[in-house]
Amino acid sequence: MTPEIINNEKLEKVAFILKTIGHPVRLAIINRLAINEQMSVGEICEALNLEQSLVSHHLNTMKLKGILARTKQGTSRYYSVALDEVLTVIGCMEKCKL
Q1: I need a surface site. Which of 5, 14, 78, 85 has the fewest CB within 10 A?
Q2: What is the pLDDT of residue 1?
C-alpha cells in the first residue's frame, strides 16, 4: 500500500492533537473517555489509580486546548471528548502494530 500525500490542514490538525495528548496520562484519560463517553474526575482517578491533582492538571490542559468538554452536575465535574478527531487518532493507534 502506497502512502498518500496528506494536505497541510490535516497535518496541522493531527500535529495539534498529538502535541496536546502526547503524554501517557493524557492518552490513558482519552482512552477511558473513548470507552465511557463521560466520566467525573473521581471516576478517572479511580480507573487510572492516579492522584486527583495530577489528573485535574491534565484534564484542564486538554479542556483549555478544546480536546475535552466539561459539564458540572452538583459539585462534580464530568469530562468528555469534545473533538471527534481525537477519537480517530486513538482508533489509528489501536490498529497500529508497535
Answers
A1: 5
A2: 63
